[in-house]
Automatic annotation (TrEMBL):
Record protein name field: HET-domain-containing protein
Heterokaryon incompatibility domain mapped to chain residues: 41-128
Alphabetized Pfam families for the sequence: HET (PF06985)
Recorded superkingdom: Eukaryota
Organism: Setomelanomma holmii
Length: 129
């Protein structure tokens, strides 16, 4: 990844605006935090599967951070591992980084998903857990 960013000018280009109110998982602290303009992150594409009662999703969208120190779905846990192994600190995944309960906020954030994926250092796709 570092060679690509260093030697390929096309890989460094970003044509999408910075997504407003975007969040990422800080893989070191295992908390969902506000994305900063220059954060480098990996984006995860996957199928959610069954939702559990303690999946950490909260109806309070005004939270500054969300703690993910509990048992995460295997796909998310694996993606955190891959993110760290690739030398990145932040991971974006819709389950924890998109608003899930307030439809207007969720719609706004879904409309920014192209920017989220475009600005990611890379994206991974999980085919199963």
């Amino acid at each position: 990844l570092s060679q690509c960013a260093k030697n390929h000018s096309v890989c460094r280009m970003t044509t999408h605006k910075f997504p407003i109110d975007a969040k990422v998982i800080d893989c070191h602290s295992r908390k969902v935090v506000a994305m900063k303009r220059h954060d480098r992150y990996l984006a995860l594409s996957y199928v959610w599967g069954a939702q559990s009662a303690n999946d950490g999703l909260s109806a309070d969208s005004n939270q500054v951070t969300m703690d993910l120190s509990f048992l995460l779905p295997r796909t998310i846990d694996d993606a955190i591992f891959v993110t760290i192994k690739l030398g990145l600190r932040y991971l974006w995944c819709d389950r924890y980084c998109l608003e899930q309960y307030h439809s207007a906020d969720k719609r706004h954030q879904i409309n920014q998903m192209a920017s989220v994926y475009n600005r990611a250092v890379t994206a991974i796709c999980a085919l199963g857990a």
